[in-house]
Design brief:
The protein is mostly helical and about 160 residues long. The protein is built from seven helices and no strands.
Length: about 160
């Protein structure tokens, strides 16, 4: 446990666990506040928006995939605020609180566990490379009038 959490030793385990729980509650709380506000702006009643915001925030951070609506978040597909908050919660939750707490060490260049380094590098690769691929594949299709058009076609398939 001490190695996984980045604690300096067994004596520091309790303090590190408190930091992990504290960060979890802070991130989920900020997500719940943002989602509640966005759900109210989308027309939900304040009580429903609060319940939906808290539930969605916890579900997204835990990568649980649960939703209160039968269509999940399809009703908010045109609301980038909701989608960005949920996406951020999923990414941060996927990294995990122990890895998020290692972020200051990453910035300062201090010691970071192998688990934390691999998690940050893998997350960066899995976020950046597909985004670049999609941008390259859709540059002339999704963004008409763009200066460069890349055509990815399958032989025998025409549009």
């Amino acid at each position: 446990m001490t190695g996984l959490l980045g604690a300096e030793g067994p004596g520091h385990l309790q303090a590190e666990l408190k930091r992990v729980l504290g960060l979890t509650f802070v991130v989920e709380g900020l997500g719940a506040a943002a989602l509640t506000s966005l759900f109210i702006q989308a027309g939900d009643a304040p009580g429903d928006a609060l319940w939906r915001g808290v539930f969605t925030s916890i579900s997204a951070f835990c990568n649980a995939g649960f939703a209160l609506q039968s269509d999940s978040l399809v009703g908010y597909q045109t609301n980038p605020g909701v989608l960005h908050v949920v996406s951020g919660l999923i990414i941060f939750g996927g990294l995990g609180p122990a890895v998020l707490l290692a972020a200051p060490r990453l910035v300062r260049g201090g010691y970071m566990s192998l688990h934390a380094r691999l998690s940050w590098v893998t997350a960066a690769v899995l976020l950046v490379l597909p985004a670049l691929f999609i941008a390259g594949a859709e540059w002339g299709n999704a963004w008409p009038g763009s200066p460069r058009r890349i055509a990815f076609t399958t032989p025998g398939f025409s549009r």
